[in-house]
Amino acid sequence: MPSKILSAATIGLESVVVEVEVDVLGAGLHNFTIVGLPDTAIKESRDRVSSALKNSGFRPPHQCGRITVNLAPADLPKLSPIYDLPVALGLLLTTKQLSFSSADKIFVGELALDGIVRSVQGVLPVTLLAQQQGIAEIYVPRANAREASVVEGVTVIPVDSLFSLAQHLTGQNIIASHPQTTLDYTLRSGAELLDMADVKGQEHAKRALEIAAGGGHNILFNGPPGSGKTLLAKVLPSILPRLTLPESLEITKIFSVAGKLPRNTALVTARPFRTPHHSASAVSLIGGGTYPRPGEISLAHRGVLFLDEFAEFPRSVLENLRQPLEDGVVTVSRAKGSSEFPAQFMLVAAMNPCPCGNATDVEKLCSCTPSQVTKYQRRVSGPILDRIDLHVDVPRIKIEKLEQEHGGESSDSIRTRIERARTFQQERFGILSAPIFTNSEMNAQHIKQFCLLDDASKTVLRTAVSQMQLSARAYHRLIKVARTIADLADTSNITSAHIAEAIHYRFKTE
Ligand SMILES: Nc1ncnc2c1ncn2[C@@H]1O[C@H](COP(=O)(O)OP(=O)(O)OP(=O)(O)O)[C@@H](O)[C@H]1O
Ligand SMILES: [Mg+2]
């Protein structure tokens, strides 16, 4: 009789149940095959399982006859070494070295040669699958137990080694289940090292940053070297609103699948702030690989993607951002499968206006030729710039400002305002059948529903659109920014003053 153990395969961010069937085909030449679309890591599983079984005191496969392992359904690609544990258990069951009920249990784990169970990626989506399917127990490597323990209604058994698991399953030495992680987990806003009050002057840029954080809008800082563009971006985590629990779960799932969740971590508790270097490849930014994995834009989901030295990124790499910036999701297709990953991030970019950096400086001479300046600015395409809501000029700061003792309002006080604005947004969008979190995510339908404009606002908007020759996208984005400005001001109606401020940031500084 073949044995059957439950495990899971994760495609994109979703997991499906995989049945690991193990059969021994009598005596004859020893053979150990794994079928059912396994990748290299799983083919190598034979050697790991054989050693782990021998070193845990069991009969290894070559003493058992011809063994066939089938990972069903066979048409789903199986990627990671998480099947080591279920394969070993199936073998022990079918060769009658162990006797236990495998029903209502799901197993994931990689085996070391000595039988120790190693941590694996993507435990959270598998545990969520167990919850959906009503499977009572999940057996995971101990290092992943906290990650699994945020899911309610599933008993998490942390596994150290194949031997201790065998003892548990046969009732000789029971492993204590991992306690459920309480869901009122303290969610932080980020690495609170820098404070807005440390940034002197630049009130205009700080205000724009507050609006961007208030509604999750995209922002571009443009200015001479040393004016504080990078500093402004780095101070952003200190004013970002704390994560809500649904947001935290979404992000944790992405980090879990990408293998970026630190060991013994239950939830991502700080809003992501990703800073890929301008030498980053398109795949690392967007996601991909033979079997698609999330890229930086998905790791920045519900947080910030900061692209410093924006114009230094190859144009071909930046162009990939066009679709995800619009849709908030990215579909990565490869020969061996296609996956959709969420990518609802806030883009923060910083660049100089020209190669020498002084083109916008009124006091310093720019040493670039006009054609050099134009060429430099063309490195970032029009369609990408059109997707940026707030274009902010960051001038060189005057010495008097720099010498000031205090740089203005503290991050804590600004964040209080931002969090209140976000609460309004949650209340507003909570009634939707597919809720969104921020103003920046509104589509044309939402804008119609939630952004009623009075006559004065309409006039201001109409004049701006025709004079600045704004695109339809820019028109919608303008209204969304105005909605955020109104939310920050604690008013339910958008006024012409809010529209005017939003228009002001639409100007592309050159
Ligand atoms: N407004 C400011 N208040 C306080 N310190 C500042 C300010 N602007 C710049 N600085 C100081 O100057 C340093 C350099 O600033 P920053 O790296 O942000 O410049 P930048 O605009 O990004 O320049 P580049 O274009 O060369 O990248 C900061 O680390 C900080 O010490
Ligand atoms: Mg910089």
How would you explain this protein's 3D organization?
Helices cover 37% and strands 17% of the residues. It has helices at residues 40-43, 45-55, 84-94, 123-133, 145-148, 162-169, 203-215, 229-235, 245-258, 282-286, 296-299, 315-319, 322-327, 370-377, 382-386, 399-402, 411-429, 444-450, 455-467, 472-488, 496-506, and strands spanning 3-11, 14-24, 31-35, 66-72, 105-107, 110-111, 117-118, 137-141, 155-159, 219-222, 273-274, 287-288, 293-294, 304-307, 329-334, 337-342, 346-351, 390-393. It has a 5-stranded parallel sheet with strand order 11-14-17-10-18. Strands 1-2-4-3 form a 4-stranded mixed sheet. Strand 12 (287-288) and strand 13 (293-294) form a beta hairpin. Helix 2 (45-55) crosses helix 3 and helix 19 (455-467) runs parallel beside helix 21 (496-506). The longest helix has 19 residues, at 411-429. The N and C termini lie far apart (74 Å). Adenosine-5'-triphosphate (ATP) binds at residues 199-202, 223, 225-231, 350, 352, 357, 397.
Structural class: alpha/beta
Mean pLDDT: 89
* Strand line-up across the major sheet: 11-14-17-10-18
**How many helices does DSSP assign?**
21
Shape: elongated
- Bound ligand species: adenosine-5'-triphosphate, magnesium ion
Beta-strand residue percentage? 15-25%
- Over the alpha carbons, how many angstroms does the gyration radius reach? 27 Å
Q: What is the percent of helical residues?
A: 25-40%
* Largest pleated sheet: 5 strands, parallel
Number of strands: 18
Through-space gap between termini = 74 Å
Q: Outline the low-pLDDT stretches.
A: none
